[in-house]
Amino acid sequence: MAKKLHKHFYYIWLILKMEESKGKITENKLTVFRSFALEVGCTLIIQENLPHCLDVKLKKGLPGVYIQLRKRGEIYIGEACDILDRQKEHLHNGVKLAALAILPTDMMDMQGRKNLETSVIASAQKRGLRLANKSKVKLAEELNRRKEYLSVSAAVQKLDRMDEYAVFQFGQGGWLETLEEAKNKATASDWERYMNFRESRFSHEALLLITTYVRRVIPDPELNYGKTWCITLNESGCPAPQWIIVNTQAGSVFCVNVHYLEEGAIVKAEFRLERRRLDLLLERSNGSDEEMQIMLGITHGHFDLKRNYCDLQKDTTIKTYPVSSGKVSLEMDLDQALEFFQSPIGVAMISGRVDSINGKEVGEGFRLGRLFF
Question: Whole-prediction pTM value?
């Protein structure tokens, strides 16, 4: 019996330790918090000497919305007619603050502040932040749904206005028609996924990466679309790993991934290349990360390609993944990828022969490509 009790208390202690470690405030969490606070318009961010500095930093009677980063790692968003007094209430109730951001407002009426509070909670939800506002989440979700509906309508109008520019840019005789013609050729499923893609806050980054890859690597992309290359989307069109992919005769050669981490979502570019090309780069650089970095022209971030390539368990800035016995994936962030595209050696590593996929104007990839550009 004593043994069972001891085991029971051990499990309780273990769960408490796990909760405690989960809630540690890292520099990354503080960076994400600051970024979000600035994004929603906060004019004051307090990180040091909390809670003792509140009487100095905050005016008595200041109304508005506040964002707390609590020491357990959660974010709490609230509103008050007197933010200073409300923080003291939280502290009295046992809340421990790691950081505090203030969005002051002239609105003295509670409903106006409540609406602003809900809007900020909705923004936090879209960003994937861990919220302590359990009771207010449903209202924010409804607001996000309404915004999504309105933004889809606005996107359709915007795309219609882009028709003339798109046709002018690529030429009437090329692979791109007007959006209306492309929409008529697309299936309902294609169009729904395409709109999900366009409505994502990551769509501009994804399109920048895809179009840069196509322009740098594929000869005459407008003329050869559907013959040497095409585009595919994942099943929903929503941001995820393997979100949007460029296919050639060699299979999937490039894709944009979106990874969801505790600190927020991040966009990554994934290049699929022959393993021997990466081996040759390591050989020519004598296995030196510094030399490889110079050869590839990547100045952004910490370059540690060799460490991960030699030990795939290592968590490094630039990741490598085995795809098959002869292929490997090279994954990096947006800034690193754009620098990689400017490097002649980088482009030589990812360029391959151009054969024909097929000349038929059919298939998901062909239809979707007409919508994307």
Answer: 0.50
